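User: Predict the full complex structure for these chains.
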Amino acid sequence: MPQFRLNLRRSPRKLLERDGHPGPGPGRLALIMARAGIGKTAFLVDVGLDAMLAGQKVLHISLGGTVDKIRTWYDDILVELLRSQKQLEHRASVQEAIEPLRHIHTYDYPFNADRLRDGLRLLKNTLDFEPQVLLLDDVNAEKLDAAMAASLKAVAAEAGFEMWMACQTHRKDPARPGHLPHPADQFEDQIDLAFQLVAEDEKVRLHLLKDHDRILDEELHILLDPETHLVTVGTLVGD
Amino acid sequence: MSDEIQQIRNIGISAHIDSGKTTLTERILFYAQKIHAIHDVKGKDGVGATMDHMELERERGITITSASTYVEWKGHHLNVIDTPGHVDFTIEVERALRVLDGAVLVLCSVAGVQSQSITVDRQMRRYNVPRIAFINKCDRTGANPERVTQALRDKLNHNAVLLQLPIGLEVHHEGVIDLIEMKALYFRGENGEQVEEGPIPAELQDAAEAARANMIDAASMFSDELLEAALEETATPEMIRAAIRKGVLALELTPVLVGSAYKNKGVQPLLDAVNAFLPSPTEVPIEAIDLDKDDAPVTLHSDPEGHTVAYAFKLEDGRYGQLTFVRVYEGTLTKGDTVYRASTGKKIKIGRLVRIHANSMEDITSASAGDIAGLFGVDCHSGETFNGEGPRLAMTSMHVPDPVISLSVNPVDSKAQANMSKALQRFTKEDPTFRVRLDPESGETIISGMGELHLDVYVERMKREYSAEVETGAPQVAYREAISRRGDFSYVHKKQTGGSGQYAKVEGYIEPLEEGGYEFVNKVKGGNIPTEYISACDKGFQVAMEKGRMIGFPVVGVRAVLEDGNSHAVDSSDMAFMVATRSAFREAYQRARPRILEPVMKVEVEGPAEFQGAIYRTLMQRRGNVLGSTEDGGFARVEAEVPLSEMFGYSTTLRSETQGKAEFTMEFSKYGPAPTEVAEELRKEYSGQVAEEDD
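Assistant: Here is the predicted structure of the two-chain assembly.
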């Protein structure tokens, strides 16, 4: 158990607490979309840290990065969170407590539900690691279609974890009215929560595009920190 | 030999172990006519590769120390340093990179970007070394140079661009296509020594044109002339080469060449690329520090007529005494001249100056700015800078990590004792990460280094090169002690035994300092402890921290805050306050919940993906925390943090669990708390030792 935890006033998962679960809940899928360089990875790491600080196990899968790069994201964002709370002196203890709760896995393509299932089986059987939250970063929009989304969500349902997926959108693919931006428009039914990070006037705002059955475009009136792209705000408290 | 400094290339060849860099170096020596026959690394012919000049290296098929050699290639003077590929010996790599102006990063076309490639690349980045990549072993099953080029981009953030395409892969690998000249190159003759040009095979024409367009796109970022010419389809090979060179020197472009050194394919074009794209000594900024001006930075110029500055980057013991490898940065070293050691100002006369081949040498009369040479008869440590008459300049000191493992070595007889002393003296001069000390309690000689293999190699070298038969103890891990919460103290040191007494009172607390180290804070008000005793208090804490009360290892990460105290006009002294704070620390230490820290290594294990589970298990059995894993082209790389104390004998376990198909590297990561059961065991062991000593 963590020796310290961050008492989060605001986090991506707390924003949309449903059925008593932070975030989409087990077996469900949340999608975060943005153009390149807006802060998708930071957002996912934010979600991951939130879960780890709550004692949940997180599997962070990247289809493009390296383990070192992703670890650095976690380290940097934790430092920012702690610095903002003037709690930086506890960094080592917090890291020591939460790092065993995270596993980072990077794959080359082709990545699919079968490979994910194999990876989960291996983690469970050899490391006794069963994630409660799965983060899937750097998904290639060209390779993401309804069949793939459905098969990945089926794995989430079987294993009982909540899944957050980050996917890049392109200027050339504007959203059709009443639908999510491409490629998410191909598998809207599979998505429980959809967010979009939107850069406006050098600021990044968080929009909610889908909340379970409703397609909408609700500006959540949340400006992401311009330096860190963080949503999370919290205070470190001792256990 | 050409004396033109612009024609000099000081290059390193760095890579993951077993990527074939020693084989590549061997071919370079052969094609440059430095050797007249080619030998295998693992010595099937009983000779071994020329660059693996140490007996031990020949036997193990690995390169342990950097051997330096020079070759002439098409009017250019190449100083080639062959560097080791194992993390245990990275100080060698770092030293080589410090003195090099450019490097060839060798990658295996099957295994791709491996853990050691990442480490080496990080080191190259640290020293701003421009590099070109050579994707080797294109004749192997599973060779895929395009995937490796992509991995260079994704994993190492290189702007990697192919300058060649392979003609056939695996057993069909026949040659390469030169995308600048748009010609096919074949390597004929018994040892591929005749480079034959030909038209691009028809079936590869489209792929070659597409790859050439990519190459020109990437290169034109560095040249408006090329950009315009490319638009008008009038780009010439000279324009392309000039633009690529600009990108490489700016560390913003990595040209990629392909081939198979073992099959004698692609080595000569690689040498051409070294000439064309890597910098001469005049094109690399060089900075030294002025020791007489508070280490103020000084820019050096590669001017043979300037103030002589030469840097000793490697020592070797040979039959003519100590051979010191130097890089001349400015001025000229001439036989018979006098130079000065920057550290001590001691005069040194240059008796013999040589140019070094792997295991032979040639006498020369001078070595000028930009050159690498060997000196005989000079007594110095590696890392020393030599100056001519004038300012005392030193090359910026190198990053040297602290050792993490120790071993006691005991000579079997008095002859071995004398030889061991000689050997240890030599090794500590050669390798700053290798340390020697005498344990005052046991009287044993303790050697320390960066890993088990590092120390093993030195023990073997003692036996082979110095006939020093030694018995070694069990490896000892460098533990530390630390506190986990605040501990208050209020201590009076009072002694009255006739004559002047001792009196000192100190009050305050100690608390953890997460960043490690030690910090002393003086909060004493109103002169309750006179100012002249404050530094004695500071010293007292530091003395107490040298040996912790739990297992006798140093205490780290402490902020000692002195808040109040008292003194006596006659009986107080520096000594009294030092004794008081030392005892106060011990009092507070118990209250501060002390704990034992152990060195934790970052371990990377690589092997075929089917062994991923087995790799996980071997790490878990050793208290490893698996950080992550990567699956890439049938290979898996698992990264973990594992306590050093659990890593002994890991190579044997890994071999048996993976049919010898996985390999690992490790380096120090951090100090982490030892689990209760381990700490308890260590405490018991230490109590036993203390009790024995008391008896």
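DSSP finds six helices and ten strands in chain A.
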